[in-house]
Amino acid sequence: LFETTGKSQSRQAVKVIYLAPAKALCQERYTDWSTRFGSLGIKVKMWTGDVEGELSQLAHADVITTTPGNRFLIMLLSSFVPP
Known about the structure:
Layout: H1 2-5, E1 16-19, H2 23-38, E2 44-46, H3 54-57, E3 63-66, H4 71-78
Parallel strand pairs: 1-3, 2-3
């Protein structure tokens, strides 16, 4: 992603959000992608809103899996995007 865009963005500036239609699929993608991308240094996190403390870890994630019901997440992450 970083090499193909030709832009010099830091990795912290890029976030990928995967919206799964169901919590089970969200868990499935999280498990699969954590295994696949972990060796590349890409941090995958799942946010369901069920566990306290999850929210503080999202700032350090590169990929976030969640469900559409978590609209708060979209608003929160928009604050990380530079103007």
